[in-house]
Amino acid sequence: MADYDYDLLVIGAGPAGEAAAMAATKSEMTVGVIDAQSDLGGNCTHKGTIPSKALRHVVKQVINYRKQPEMLHLNSFNTITYPAVLQAAKSIIPRKVAMHKAYFMRNRIHVHSGLAHFTSANSVAVEYQDSPTDNITAKHILIATGSRPYRPSNIDFNHPRIYDSDTILRMAHTPRTLVIYGAGVIGCEYASIFSGLGIKVDLINNRDSLLSFLDTEITDALSYHLRNKGVLVRHGEQFDSVDATAEMVTVHLKSGKRIKADALLWCNGRSGNTEDLQLGNAGLEANSRGQVEVDDEYRTVQPSIYAAGDVVGWPSLASASYDQGRAVVDSITNQQVRKVTDAPTGIYTLPEISSVGKTEAELTAAKVPYEVGRAFFKDTARAQISGDEVGMLKILFHLDTQEILGIHCFGAEAAEIVHIGQAIMNQTGEANNINYFTNTTFNYPTMAEAYRVAALNGLNRLKRQ
Ligand SMILES: Cc1cc2nc3c(=O)[nH]c(=O)nc-3n(C[C@H](O)[C@H](O)[C@H](O)COP(=O)(O)OP(=O)(O)OC[C@H]3O[C@@H](n4cnc5c(N)ncnc54)[C@H](O)[C@@H]3O)c2cc1C
Ligand SMILES: NC(=O)c1ccc[n+]([C@@H]2O[C@H](COP(=O)([O-])OP(=O)(O)OC[C@H]3O[C@@H](n4cnc5c(N)ncnc54)[C@H](O)[C@@H]3O)[C@@H](O)[C@H]2O)c1
């Protein structure tokens, strides 16, 4: 006999789980949500997107503050410490948790704060810290358990000088030097955060270039700005081992190099959270990275069990996870399901990067004839006024049809700016056209002006053909 029975049982209260739970209640389903953390919001709110973006925001304020001539006396490590910055950043978390709680209460979503595991394909047990286990049955179950940093077994993550993206949110000292191993999105974002605080960063990349899925001109700009902030990027290096003492860490690379620093931040890879779920009881199994495979409607091989968010792997973004969660409910209620395949990139380095659509390299490889229109932020009135003059917007469009094929942007608010272009790019037929930006009057001064400037630049190049 089950203690609870729901139409939809969601395991994990991050973006995917919350979006599914909310959509299901709006479709009149009874919904239960299980999360191992005592507060709602998932890893997104407690360990990933929110704390890292809040940290970056505080660091950006510190940088702006220090730029003011009257604040020059603050250019000392003693005045602004990492723990102080962290504390300021974390103040957002209780506000987010309260908001999630209000949503859940208003929509009568029952929350079970405990660790879940499957007992069959339609039943789950929840273990609590101080009360007996609940047995829950449901017509549909969603696995939305997210991911965690991948931890190689030869690194002691309990050492007080070795961190990953979860534990860096508890670092209680301010290192003077930091080695970041892994130059993916997390590594590059944290390199910006720490170098912004004046900490010397060695960023070790095991690939040949930074963020190779982005436009090369944009990653060149990122490399330049990281270097300018004192980040030393080492490409094509493989981790061998790390020695950590009470005073320092020494990272040994397979090339024979030894990098010494006050601390190591490991940012290389993530694994799906499936190890506690006892998936075998439900007739499921995870792949070598702990991820669950799903079809185009986010269904696992068990038709009543869905999976969404980081636990299904790519793109592993909060943005995509929200949409995947809603797509699950569309599938359950027999609506049209949108598989999320077109999430834009929004990378919160300093400066910020964002893009949607194809890169120049992809278009060239596919032999698509295209032209480029560029606008530099320094030439727009809004950027001149705000002082955020570093940045560029680049529009790639088809040579013959003028259809927009890609938008690439770096600089302040790039992640917002890209959505203007995305909205036009997503129009069907002739409505997706670069001429939109020359035939539309934008507010002035705004960063949207960059679209007009880039479009005119690109169309002028066409005249030279
Ligand atoms: C440092 C960092 C920065 C990021 N920045 C961005 C960004 O700027 N933009 C962006 O779009 N994405 C970003 N991401 C990615 C984003 O955080 C994730 O894609 C998102 O959190 C995934 O959401 P989710 O719903 O899959 O689950 P999660 O947010 O991972 O939450 C899963 C929940 O499931 C719970 N759980 C796990 N196992 C069990 C179990 N057995 N029983 C009960 N509960 C369980 C966990 O406690 C957790 O609360 C970032 C990630 C990191 C690490
Ligand atoms: N602003 C943003 O959008 C944002 C910010 C931070 C993180 N994220 C998301 O977080 C995820 C993690 O990013 P990242 O920078 O750590 O790494 P990454 O995805 O770039 O991977 C780094 C390296 O680790 C390897 N790897 C990944 N998982 C592994 C595993 N389980 N075992 C062994 N090797 C593994 C990969 O092959 C790669 O070489 C990304 O999917 C990213 O989308 C997004």
UniProtKB/TrEMBL annotation:
<keyword id="KW-0285">Flavoprotein</keyword>
<feature type="binding site">
    <location>
        <position position="53"/>
    </location>
    <ligand>
        <name>FAD</name>
    </ligand>
</feature>
<dbReference type="GO" id="GO:0005829">
    <property type="term" value="C:cytosol"/>
</dbReference>
<dbReference type="GO" id="GO:0006103">
    <property type="term" value="P:2-oxoglutarate metabolic process"/>
</dbReference>
<dbReference type="GO" id="GO:0003957">
    <property type="term" value="F:NAD(P)+ transhydrogenase (Si-specific) activity"/>
</dbReference>
<dbReference type="InterPro" id="IPR001100">
    <property type="entry name" value="Pyr_nuc-diS_OxRdtase"/>
</dbReference>
<feature type="domain" description="Pyridine nucleotide-disulphide oxidoreductase dimerisation">
    <location>
        <begin position="344"/>
        <end position="454"/>
    </location>
</feature>
<keyword id="KW-0963">Cytoplasm</keyword>
<dbReference type="Pfam" id="PF02852">
    <property type="entry name" value="Pyr_redox_dim"/>
</dbReference>
<feature type="binding site">
    <location>
        <begin position="182"/>
        <end position="189"/>
    </location>
    <ligand>
        <name>NAD(+)</name>
    </ligand>
</feature>
<keyword id="KW-0547">Nucleotide-binding</keyword>
<feature type="binding site">
    <location>
        <begin position="145"/>
        <end position="147"/>
    </location>
    <ligand>
        <name>FAD</name>
    </ligand>
</feature>
<dbReference type="GO" id="GO:0004148">
    <property type="term" value="F:dihydrolipoyl dehydrogenase (NADH) activity"/>
</dbReference>
<dbReference type="InterPro" id="IPR023753">
    <property type="entry name" value="FAD/NAD-binding_dom"/>
</dbReference>
<keyword id="KW-0274">FAD</keyword>
<dbReference type="InterPro" id="IPR036188">
    <property type="entry name" value="FAD/NAD-bd_sf"/>
</dbReference>
<protein>
    <recommendedName>
        <fullName>Soluble pyridine nucleotide transhydrogenase</fullName>
        <ecNumber>1.6.1.1</ecNumber>
    </recommendedName>
</protein>
<feature type="domain" description="FAD/NAD(P)-binding">
    <location>
        <begin position="6"/>
        <end position="325"/>
    </location>
</feature>
<keyword id="KW-0560">Oxidoreductase</keyword>
<keyword id="KW-0520">NAD</keyword>
<comment type="similarity">
    <text>Belongs to the class-I pyridine nucleotide-disulfide oxidoreductase family.</text>
</comment>
<dbReference type="InterPro" id="IPR016156">
    <property type="entry name" value="FAD/NAD-linked_Rdtase_dimer_sf"/>
</dbReference>
<feature type="binding site">
    <location>
        <position position="269"/>
    </location>
    <ligand>
        <name>NAD(+)</name>
    </ligand>
</feature>
<dbReference type="GO" id="GO:0050660">
    <property type="term" value="F:flavin adenine dinucleotide binding"/>
</dbReference>
<keyword id="KW-0521">NADP</keyword>
<feature type="binding site">
    <location>
        <position position="310"/>
    </location>
    <ligand>
        <name>FAD</name>
    </ligand>
</feature>
<comment type="function">
    <text>Conversion of NADPH, generated by peripheral catabolic pathways, to NADH, which can enter the respiratory chain for energy generation.</text>
</comment>
<dbReference type="InterPro" id="IPR050151">
    <property type="entry name" value="Class-I_Pyr_Nuc-Dis_Oxidored"/>
</dbReference>
<dbReference type="Pfam" id="PF07992">
    <property type="entry name" value="Pyr_redox_2"/>
</dbReference>
<dbReference type="InterPro" id="IPR004099">
    <property type="entry name" value="Pyr_nucl-diS_OxRdtase_dimer"/>
</dbReference>
